[in-house]
Specification:
Elements (H helix, E strand, L loop, with lengths): L6 H11 L3 H5 L4 H14 L2 E5 L15 E6 L2 H14 L4 E6 L12 E7 L8 H11 E12 L5 H17 L7 H11 L2 E9 L5 E8 L1
Parallel strand pairs: 1-2, 1-4, 2-3, 4-5
Antiparallel strand pairs: 5-7, 6-7
EC number: 2.1.1.-
GO molecular function: S-adenosylmethionine-dependent methyltransferase activity
Keywords: Methyltransferase, Transferase
Length: 212
């Protein structure tokens, strides 16, 4: 896609966000985070949290859920490591710098993959989703929470106008639901289990795919 985001730009943007990320986005995204964690904890077992960032979500998981967290931003992960040490989160097995599109985990490894506000912030969403499904066990779930772009109307016009600025900040705002529909149809190894609107104002969605 022309003028789309790139990996280096995303890493640079989130390095800038690292010192203030929790303050700026903590409350805004809390409902989506808690909802994805509740679904992942209900599944249990081994969970991969992609885009774990500063580790804001880690302490909210059940202590019986084994966690691996990855992020493209080393400065963000430094804060996550500090949080794990401070809170003695013994259920966190791995925190690593990693490209979400090329996960260094074997196939069929995780019971659930959680990606909170990630898909609109990666250069190749479809290839990234493919790798999420690769590392899932059959029957496991991919749990997304993300902004879904408007199909029409003033919000769509705003998202298109805002997109050049948003890309410099590290994400794309005009991400339509149809992209996920087309991806799932092409992949053929997943089924949609749920799509649920999330605050603020339903502009975000919790989306669950089950690996067949």
């Amino acid at each position: 896609m022309a003028n789309d985001i790139d990996r280096a730009g995303v890493a640079k943007a989130y390095a800038r966000w690292a010192p203030i990320y929790d303050l700026v986005f903590g409350k805004v995204f809390d409902s989506g985070r808690q909802s994805t964690i509740a679904v992942a904890d209900a599944i249990g077992g081994r969970v991969l949290d992609v885009g774990v960032g500063t580790g804001l979500s880690l302490s909210d998981y059940s202590k019986t859920t084994r966690l691996c967290g990855v992020d493209i931003s080393e400065p963000m992960l430094r804060k996550a490591h500090e949080r794990v040490r401070t809170l003695n989160l013994s259920n966190v097995d791995v925190l690593a710098v990693m490209d979400a599109k090329n996960l260094a985990f074997p196939a069929n490894y995780f019971d659930a993959v959680v990606a909170q506000y990630v898909i609109t912030a990666v250069p190749d969403p479809e290839a990234t989703l493919d790798d999420f499904i690769r590392v899932l066990k059959p029957g496991g779930e991919l749990i997304l929470v993300n902004h879904i772009g408007a199909e029409s109307g003033p919000r769509k016009l705003f998202e298109l106008a805002f997109s050049p600025i948003a890309r410099r900040l590290g994400w794309r705002p005009e991400f339509p639901w149809q992209r996920l529909v087309n991806w799932a149809a092409r992949h053929r190894g997943v089924e949609l289990a749920e799509r649920r609107p999330m605050p603020p104002m339903g502009h975000f969605s919790l989306i669950r795919y089950r690996k067949l």
